[in-house]
Specification:
It is a single chain. Among the domains are: 48 residues, no CATH class; 89 residues, Tumour Suppressor Smad4 (Sandwich). The longest helix is centred in the last third of the chain and has 23 residues. A hairpin with a 1-residue loop joins strand 6 and strand 7. The radius of gyration is 25 Å and the shape is flat. 36% of the residues lie in helices and 30% in strands. Helix 1 runs antiparallel to helix 2 and helix 2 runs antiparallel to helix 3. The strands form three sheets. It has a five-stranded mixed sheet with strand order 5-4-6-7-10, with no helix packed on it. The chain has a five-stranded antiparallel sheet with strand order 9-8-11-12-13, with no helix packed on it. The C terminus is likely disordered. It has 200 residues and is α+β, with helices and mostly antiparallel strands. It is built from five helices and 13 strands.
Amino acid sequence: MTRFDSYQTNMRVGRRDAARTDLVRADIAGAAQVGEYRRLLYHLDTALLTAGKVELKRRGKPLIVACAAPKIVLGRDALCDLPLRAGGVSRQHAEIDRGDGFHLRDLDSRNGTTIGGLPLVGRVPLADAGRFGLGDECSIDFEAKDGILILRIANGSRSGRLARRRRRRRQARARDRRDRARDRVPPRANRCSAAATCAM
C-alpha cells in the first residue's frame, strides 16, 4: 500500500491528521502530480480541526478562525490560538476565557493590554462590542452576542506591515541576485571556447 492509498483510506474513515501525514510523506513523481498534491494538501489544511480550532484560509481574503476551546491565547507565538504579528505583542500576550461570559486577561505582557484606551488590570468581561489593544500596534475589535464572540483584527494580523516588509526584502534580494548573475563575466575557459567556435 502506497502513502497515497493510505491517505485515501484515512480520509474515508475520518482520520484527517493521519491523512495529512501520509500526504506529506507521499512520493511525488511528475510535475502534474506535484500540483495535485499541493491542492489536496491545501484543501486538507483548510478543513483540519486541531485543538478545538478550525482555520479557514481563503485566497485574497482575511483568515477566519473558529475556536470552541474554553480558553483562547493571543500572542506572537505561532502556537497561540490566535497568532499576531505586530510590534509590541508578547509571545503569550493575553487570553480570553469562557466561563459565565467572555473575559479578557493580560498574561503579564511587557507592553500591556488596553481596553477602551485604558490599561487592563485583572480580568475584564467582554460584553456587547468594543475594541481592545495588545501592545502599541495591535488593535482587535470584538462583538459578543448570543454566546458567540467575534474578533476582528484591525492591525497586527499575519498580513501586517512586518510580513509586507519581509516580502519586499526578499524580492529586493532576488532582484539583486538576478542583476549580479546577469552582469557576471563568463569564465576564461568559456570565452576561449566561444571564440574558437566563432572562428570556425
